[in-house]
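task queued by scheduler; priority normal; single chain, no ligands, no partner chains; default sampling; output format set to structure tokens
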Amino acid sequence: MLKRKLRGVIAVGTLVMMSLYLTGCGAKPVVTPQQQLTVKTVKIALADLPSGEAYLGSITPYVQTIVSSSLSGILSTINVRVGDKIQSGQTLATLNTDLLEAQKNQAAANVGVAASQQDATSESSQDSLSQAKAALETAETNLANAQTGATSSVNANQTASATQESQVASAVASAQKALATAQAQLQNATVNSQNDITQKQSALVSAQANLTAAQQQQAAAVASDQDNVLKAQEALDTASTQLALAKQSSHSTTAPALLQAQSVYDQASITYQGVLSKLKIDQASGAVATSQAAYDAAQSALQASKSSQTVVTAQAQVDQAQQALEAAKTNQASVSSQAQSTNTAAQTTATNSIAAAQAALQQAQVAYENLLSNPQLKVNVAQLDAAQAGIQVIGAQINQGQISSPISGYVVAINAQPGQAVGPQGGFITIASMDPLTATVDIPETSIGNIKLGMPMEVSVPAVSQILQGVVSSIHPQPDGTNKKYSIEITLQKGQTTLLPSMRVEAHAVTQGAKGIVIPADSVLTMQSGALSVFVLKDGIAHSVTVKVGSMTDSVYEITSGLSVDDQLVVQGQNLLSEGDKVKVIN
């Protein structure tokens, strides 16, 4: 509590200094109708009040991947910038394919040459035949080596992919098991809650019966007592009459008749007071009050059972397990897709390598056979086929020069520039997915025991003056080696403004059930008198409102007076406003 008070004093002091600085800089600029001020606002609503200390952190991506090129080459263009929002399949960059285009043109020229040579023939010498035979043997060796290398490369890629897919499949199975456990716990919690409510209802019925019986017994006793009181009253009246007559007829206070009448009167009076006291005692009987208290307690116990959060907590655990399973399945699909792409690329490379070796072998075979039979035209046909196959191979490589994004999200880093060499060995564009929206904050070692999965948190984002609700979705088990703080992840509800990775946040737990008005600290201004104020909009006109502040953190204040639910609070642009200014809202 002392830390929070000190933080509040520092925050107010900072606001006072900023106000004095703005005042010392001169009068506010005159705003003409054509230069109407623009502001951002939020609608005031009741929210859970902050409790405990505040924790600092930042907005973090849910998934982050580094994109690389499947083809080695020089970057020609980069079509995105850091901060851009992109879609899956969007072209991020292109490689310089001038060399491949030249090779393709050369291959096309070779096709023309081969076509021209089809019209020419020549005789082969013995020396040419020997060279052709040697070339054929070399081509056969190259083909065998290409086949062996291709098989090894494809097998290695398939083995690695199978291992990775087995790991993610195990993760999915674990997530499914966790979900089944959570669902079983939810079912048990539901049954236990219903049994408890049934027991409380039975106890309430019994208490109602006891209360009715006590009320009936009291009514019977009071009725009997009232009848006795009437009888005793009649006896007392009769004795009083007789005593009066005895006093009139007796000449001495010690006359036997007078003494007898006085004794009868005294006994009747005592009897009357006795039955009257019993009536009062029975009317104030504690049995009915005790039965009523027992009935009220049973009714309260039943209401407490109905409002128990056990089933809600179990349902939240089921939802969390379901999210974990979906994430595991998404990762499995991503790994499977990546493995398929890798295997396809390896298979393509192997196929191209074998195809090139087969083409060379075919060319060498044709050359040798044609030299044997001396039909140069067959050689030219084989050369033409080989040249056309080369064009297809180069065309496929040119298509790989278009680098596309595998996911939708934001560009958070570009580690290469046009003119630099890139390839499959290292990625150069980092893509972050911000769905769902998450924040990561640091928790001191002394406070980590208070943090639980599913705990509601309130997160302030000063950069956009937003306060978002969220829940703790992950607690990292290892502290940071330097500051000994633990990291937790908070899944946030989306706000009005797009949030970007690394935006600074301040998070704190909330007191469920304790509601109040909580606003961004930056929206509060300090007047020259030292009082605090904010601006609210009514019909497009800015009005200054003096407020009182309760609990404070570095980024949010609790407002105890001055604001009401549904007020339109100015959260950006308030420093330039004056009372009565007409403004334009740009939310």
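post-processing summary
- Confidence is low (pLDDT under 50) at residues 1-28.
- Residues 186-308 form one domain.
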